[in-house]
Structure formats: C-alpha cells, structure tokens
C-alpha cells in the first residue's frame, strides 16, 4: 500500500511538473511610481506573441510558455520594464517608473540624440498623443498652439498648408518657415508624413540647437521622428475617423430687402439688368450642398525578431472643402526596416515613403470669394431657362457660381522619399553613421476655363491675389483656354558622421564629426498654354485640339525660363559635448557650408555656436530640500544662415527680352540685361543669444521652462533699387538689411489631481516677441529707409497702400490714413501730415503709423482628464495684441455704390454723399486678438475585448467650437506668415467647425 501511494504521488508530481513545463499561469498587478494601478498596461512574453493588458484595477492574468519566461511591461508615459520569472513566483507586483518628467526625455537633435536633462539648448518636444486632433493633414496645424514661440496660422482651405513662423520673422525674402528633418533626412517635404505615423516632433529653437544645420537653420529646425517596429512585440493597428465640416462664420451682408430699403432711402436705383427681384445669399451659393465630409484610415503593422524590426503603414486621407469643387485627397504608403548583424554591432535601415496627393482648387478662388460678398442679392444665380445670370456690361461683375462651374484648377503631386542608413559600432566608443537619401517630387498641374469665360471682358477681369501682390488683368483667350505643366524635382543627399561617446570617470565626452553633400535638380519639365478649343469638354488634357494660331496676337506660354535649376550644398560639421559629474555641461558646434546659389566670391560660410548649462539640482546643497526635483540654468549663442527664398540664378547676370522698339518702320524686338549679377552675394546670418531655466517642482508634479532670446539677422537679402548709372537694370539682389527679434517664452506643466480613478493634467505655454526692421539700406540703395507696400486696389483705392518696410518698425507695420470721424457736413475726414483735418488726404503724404500685425502674446492651454476608462482633452489657443487691416470691410463700406455692389449690414447708417467713408484708413484697422476653443475630444477605452483585440478606443472630437474676439471679419486668424501679415483682403477662405468620430484598434 505504501509503495502504491508513493507511485501515485510520483505520478501526480510528474504530471504537475509536466503541466508546469507546458503552461504557467502568471498573475499580478501593475502600479505607477505613486503606487496607483495602471489600467490598459501591456504585458508581453518576450520572444512570443503572447500578451495581455491590465484591467481597470491594474491586474492581469496570462499564460506563459515556461516558468523562467521574460515579461516586457509597457505603458504610455512610463519606462518599459523587463521582468524575468524565477520559476516559482507567479503573483507579481510590478512598479513602472514614470518617463513623464520632461527633463528625463530623450530628444532628437541634429545628427544624434540626447537626454533632455543634459541639454544646453532650447528644444521643445511633442509626443504623438499631444498633437492636435482633428481632420488634419498638415504638420503645421498639428503643432498649432503646442509650442511656445511657434506662430501658426491657417484658413479653412484644405488645399493650403499653414504658415509657420518660429520666434518672429527673420527675413524679408522668403516664407520664414522652419527647416524640416524627417528621420534624419534634411529638407524633406513634410507632406510625405501621415499624422498617424509620427512618434515625436522636436522643435529646435535657438542657434546652439540649429547651427549644426548651418545655412538652412535661420528659421528654426523641426525634427520629425516616425514610429518604428519593436523586436519584442508584433502589432497591427487601425486608426480612422469620419468627420463633417461646416462654415463657422460669414460676413453679415445685406439681403435683398435690406439693400433695397437702403437704396430707396438714399435715392439710389438698381439697373434693370441687375435687379431681377431675387434674394440671393451669394456666400451660401458658393458653398457645397450639405456639410463637407472628411475621412482618414490608417492601417499599420509592426514587429520583429532577434535580428531586426519592421513597420509598414498605409494611410488614406480625404477632405472636402466647404466651397464648391474644393477637395483634397492623399494616399501615403510607408515601409521602415531595421536589420542587425554581427552581434548587433551593425544596424542597417531602409525607409521608403510615397505620398500621392490631389488638390482640387476652386477656380479663380480669390475672385470667387470677392464676388460672393460684393455681388448684388437682387441678382439671381440662374435665369429662368437655367442658364447662369450675368451682366457682362457692368465692370467687374461676375457670377461666382458660374466662375466655379466653368473652370477647372487641379494639381496632383507624387512624392517619393527613400533613405538607406548604416550604423556601425566601432571600438573605443566610436560609432559611424551613413545616410543616403533620395527624394523625387513630381507635380502635374492643369487649368481649364471653357468658352463661357470668353464672354467676360478681359479689359476689366482682374485677379485678386493674396497680399502683397497687386491685381492684374487676366485674358482667357477665345473659346476657352488651358494651361498644363509637369515638373520634377529631385534631391540626392549623402551624409556621414563619426560619433565618439566616452565616459572617463566623472567626465563624459560626446563628439560628432561629419560631412553633408546635397544636389538638387528643380523644375525639370515643361509648361504650355493654348486657346480656341472646338468643344468645352476636353479640359486641359488635350492641348493639341486647340487652334491658337488663328487668334491674333496670342502667344503660347512655355513656362518660366528659369524654372530649371541645379543647385549644390556641401557642409562639414562638428559638435562637442562635455559633461562633468552631470552638473556642468558644455556644447560647441561649428558648420562650414558652401552653396552654389550665392555669388562667386562668397560661396562659403561658417556657422558656430556654443552652449552651457548648470544642473543646480545635482549640487550637494540641494540634496535636503523638498521643492526642486529638477533645476537647470542654461545659456547659448550661435549663428545660423538662410539659403531659402532665392535660387540658382539669384546672383547671376541674365539677359532677356525687353519688349520692342520702332526702327525704320518696324517694331523690332529688344534684347538686353534684365537682372544684374552680384558676385558678392552671401548668406543671410542670424545670430541668437538665449538664456533659459528648466525646472521641476515637488517631485515632478510641476515642470516648466522659461527662455529669453535675442535674435538678429544681418546681411539680409533684398531686391534693392539702385542708381541705373551704377547698375543698368535699376535693381540688384544684395545684402544690406538687419532685422531683430527679442522675446520670452514660458512653458508650464502640472498634474493638480491624481487619484486611483481620476487624473487631471494641464499644460500652458506663453510667448511674446518684439520684431523690428533695424536697417533697410545698402551702400547702393537709393530708396531711403522705407518702402510703402501692400496695395489691394479695391474700388476707388488706386495707389493706396496698407503697410511699410521702415527702419525702426516691425514687419507688418500699418501705414495709412488716420481717420478723424466726420465733419459737420457728414463727410469722413482725416488727419493731415501737419496735424490738421482734411477731407482730401494725399495718398502716402498724409499717412500715419497705425499699429502692427505682430502679436504681442501667443497662448496655448491644454487640459487632459482621465476618469476610469473615459478621457477628455480640451485645448484653448489665443493670440493677443495684434492688429488686422480689414480691407474687406473697407471695400464693402461704399454706400455710394450700393446699387452696383453689395454692402455690409452695419454700413446702413452711412451716407452715399460721403465719398470718403470707405478709404483705407485707421477706421478699418481692428484688434485681432482672440481666444479659441480649438479642440475638445472625449474618448472611451474598452481595453481588451477579445483574444485577438488588445485595445479598442472610440472618441468624438469637435474643432473650433467657438472663438471669442472683437474682430468683425470672418475670422481673426488672418495670415501671419510672409511679408504682408495681418491683411484681410477679400480672400479669406471660410474657417470651419468640424465634428468627428474616430476609432483606434490595436490587434
């Protein structure tokens, strides 16, 4: 009997051991650094696909392959932890360390990475989950309001990207936009990246951070890092949304009843040709029927094994505009592979992304917008027979719906970016990196205006360009006109650098030495125009059907003779970081850049920088205090350059056609110089001094940073007017000007409440910048210290300008008539140059300085709430202290022409006898300050719902819920980029309000 018992015991023990060998049940709880449970934390058995997520109480239970399995525990915002089972313990308590402390983050800098706690420069990092939510395809809008000092403005037009200006405008010659680096590839078109593929964005602000990119870094550098696969985790994910957009605001124009009452009261009469008894809301008529639809679908796969990882994604984005025909669509395919070899000492990387975009633009967009507000409501859209109503006799009176219906304006782009990387770990702490990249952008553009457009009188059909451009006449030929072009841009880049990372006791040294070579071929393609088509349905697809030779004087346009360019940039760079005891930090960089776009005598430039920091929290005297968990003071100075805004021909002598002259009874073609050479043309240089402090309070519950900077651009490139005796052309592109930006930036983050069930975190960023044109002269410049500019040319406003480039004043300085109310006769009067009042002011002479378009304060304020499985984020954005010149309002404030053009409702008390009421003046300069509830998102995470679905989250987002402002225009978010900021000139594509439903699933 005893032997039988022993045999049975051995049998069951062996069975138990065999069962344990085959299957082990593990359970436990995952806690944060405050001992609070972490719901939806991920637990993965390393080397397998087995994984689970924790429940609401942070608890989990899973089966692993053996009692010595290795678990990888991860949760967003915490450092991953690896746990090896010891063969006996199956009930675990695992505590994750928070990675949310901003000073502990790893940030991407030029040609490397670094710990934020040891940075000597000004860098702001934004994680994917912190980016703006919504129907957004543009990286600028993703960052809007998120980074202190980053001024971003956008309209409702889905075909246009946002304007991005960092720490104020640095130049007069280009867009002032930052330089983008994506996964280490410099100068990549940002449209190749899907928002769903972004892991982090690092904004490099001061020159010490950006100088390593030399001649392209004057406007700041934005580093985008995309998501990568994991060796330890295989994952399939879907992110998608559908949304609806509607116009959030429109101008309050008079309807037919109001306008008829106004004209009757003031003895004005509509012409019979215009007054058909209609009551048309033209702003509504150019809108798409129903709400504009948006959708996005992103499917990604990632994973890997012992020797490598991969990620692949496919994104489809569609976004209708609220205006008729306006539409945008994009498809992005991306593949990223990393392969390790030779005991992980060599890593190869391959990244390929292809983005195909189609932009369907509103034909003659700005003219359509102008006509939609000025067209008389008493005119109908269509005649009784269904044809479009038109009055071809009235000057500049066009049916905006007909303009859209009978025109086509489309652009398709294909952007391919591929780069191959290699990283080799060498002895003695050295690492070698090689990056070979190729980018190919193909653009195809077509416009067609059918025979209907030929009915418009080309002697009064003006376009309505964005400021600072001035209106010009458009001729649509005979029986339709078409334009077609196709261009290709290619960029080839080779960069290699050697890194030495060595720790010698309390000394840490990290040095980088590298070389960069880039060759760009731009505008390789063709363009052609044609007219006189036999039918209207050929569009721009078959120019051969045209018969332009029968149209007297018509000349085919074969495009810009300077479209084709080949440029080369070569750079050598070095950076040295020194760290003593993690307390005292020093960084120095230098880059030597050469560019073919500059004068033969100044092809090369040097861009040095230096930065230092003191980590006070590491000092012995800080050990026993309980207030500061982190405290670092830093300072930097550096010089960067600007190579954007000019091309391969900027410094070259160019001859071309100069029209014709009469000789011996004939008109003879003239040929001569039309651009002067400047062999001394060199880089613009921007020097930035920056001091800052980074801090954390009460064990990281409050974090923040404060930066003060002084940025000055010298040798500013501008097209100066010169004495024709010295330069026959009369103008020359030369260095000469100086621009200054000084400001302060503040960023704060806090978690006021954190309990087992509820968390509230908030972050606030503020920025203030003062811009000034310090110098606007050149030794050859004969134009004085100022240039009047921005001439919208509204009705009766010929020669009137709105802004001025002026030494001692900011970019966007308004310079106009000073409104002084009405005199006893009810006529608008203005302050003359000598201070007297006049009703006949002289354009230019009686102008006064009248505020600036530059904002005094930028604000972004985000709040995130988490209650059990619910999450709510609310984000406000504000701009304060800027002025807007509402030229739109001025042009709609002409009561004397109310019988031919519509006017605003609040112009009802104006008298038609006051012919001065509409003049561009301070009367139409308004406060552009606003605060907007930019985004509100409510989500619910179901967690794991089945064996194959690890996480499901649904959410609803509302964009632009409301805006608080005194501005009387459509929206105060008027263009802040370029050289004519803050001008609202009959061209504002309506801002929209978006309602969106989204789904995130992880398999």
Q: Which properties best describe this structure?
A:
1003 residues, mainly beta, 6% helix, disordered N terminus, 3 domains, 5-stranded mixed β-sheet, Maltoporin, Chain A, 22-stranded antiparallel barrel, Ferric Hydroxamate Uptake Protein, Chain A, domain 1, single chain, Immunoglobulin-like
Kindly describe this structure:
This protein is mainly beta and 1003 residues long. It folds into 3 domains: 23-95, Immunoglobulin-like (Sandwich), CATH 2.60.40.4130; 106-226, Ferric Hydroxamate Uptake Protein, Chain A, domain 1, CATH 2.170.130.10; 242-599 and 635-812 and 853-882 and 928-1002, Maltoporin, Chain A (Beta Barrel), CATH 2.40.170.20. 6% of the residues lie in helices and 48% in strands. It has 8 helices and 50 strands. The protein has a 22-stranded antiparallel β-barrel. A 5-stranded mixed beta sheet has the order 10-15-16-13-14. Strands 3-2-5-6 form a 4-stranded antiparallel beta sheet, with no helix packed on it. A hairpin with a 3-residue loop joins strand 34 (731-754) and strand 35 (758-775). 41% of the residues are buried. The model is unreliable at 3-21 (pLDDT under 50).
* Topology, number of strands: 50
Q: Which sheet architecture does the biggest sheet show? A: 22 strands, antiparallel, barrel
Average per-residue pLDDT, rounded, comes to: 89
Q: Which fold name fills CATH's third level, the topology of the largest domain?
A: Maltoporin, Chain A
Number of domains: 3
Approximate helicity band: under 10%
CATH class of the largest domain: Mainly Beta
